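hiii so um. not sure if this is the right channel but i have a protein structure encoded as tokens and i wanna go backwards to a sequence. like what aa goes where. can anyone help
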């Protein structure tokens, strides 16, 4: 067969194959577009829902999700009415099973406390609360400051000690109390998630000493050993001896150089001190 004719046939086959592939893609695309998209209607938040809220019909709506349904999605609103929210849910967000407290546990703070743990309310510095430094979900260290019971050291004074580390904040808010004159006053209250043993320690310390919370990075979960500090240590008065009573080390004896002088048949020696000894 003529080589020129063979080349023409090969080129024709390539062009025909390309046209066939293009037609196939166009037809397949139109068929895919005409297919119905599978969607599932799930329960979603009608408004922003705060932690601890007990769900009602007014909090709920429905939305359609294309493709695979998220694990734990709720299909019927009536199935979750009356359950508490253990994590904030935003408007339009699908409500999942792991964002809700178990059925029958109600709402509020109690529904978000894990088994074996306790929620303990402590009063904190007003500046900390008003400035919004402490919010739910943050991690804090707990410091106490005061004069230790039975302390007789006049130079020690107030002592500060870290008693708890890496403690989760459950909630932060304002509690209205009355002062000595009967007037209402605002007291900042923070609820901390602690173990029963930590609850005892914190309750005992809060009754006698001032509580201070120190924020920490949520990713930093390391518990370090921190020594307590006192006013005496800050000002350098640690009960040591007075400067005048400190004994100084004796000075080293000065070096002496001996020079032998020979004058004829006579010999003599002269001693000289080093230049440092003269100074």
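sure thing!! here u go:
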């Amino acid at each position: 067969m003529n080589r020129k004719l063979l080349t023409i046939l090969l080129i024709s086959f390539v062009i025909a194959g390309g046209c066939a592939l293009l037609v196939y893609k166009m037809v397949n695309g139109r068929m895919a577009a005409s297919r119905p998209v599978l969607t599932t209607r799930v329960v979603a938040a009608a408004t922003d829902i705060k932690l601890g809220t007990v769900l009602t019909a007014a909090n709920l709506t429905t939305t359609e999700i294309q493709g695979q349904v998220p694990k734990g999605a709720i299909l019927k609103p009536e199935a979750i009415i009356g359950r508490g929210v253990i994590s904030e849910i935003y408007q339009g967000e699908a409500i999942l099973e792991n964002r809700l407290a178990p059925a029958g546990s109600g709402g509020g703070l109690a529904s978000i406390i894990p088994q074996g743990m306790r929620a303990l309310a402590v009063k904190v510095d007003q500046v900390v609360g008003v400035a919004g430094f402490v919010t739910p979900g943050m991690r804090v260290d707990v410091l106490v400051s005061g004069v230790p019971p039975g302390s007789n050291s006049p130079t020690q004074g107030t002592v500060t000690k870290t008693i708890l580390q890496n403690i989760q904040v459950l909630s932060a808010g304002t509690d209205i109390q009355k002062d000595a004159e009967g007037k209402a006053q605002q007291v900042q209250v923070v609820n901390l998630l602690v173990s029963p043993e930590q609850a005892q320690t914190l309750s005992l310390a809060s009754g006698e000493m001032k509580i201070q919370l120190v924020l920490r990075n949520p990713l930093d979960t390391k518990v370090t050993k921190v020594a307590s500090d006192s006013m005496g240590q800050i000002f350098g008065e640690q009960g040591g001896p007075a400067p005048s009573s400190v004994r100084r080390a004796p000075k080293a004896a000065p070096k002496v150089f001996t020079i032998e002088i020979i004058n004829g048949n006579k010999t003599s020696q002269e001693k000289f001190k080093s230049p440092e000894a003269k100074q």
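oh and Residues 114-234 form one domain.
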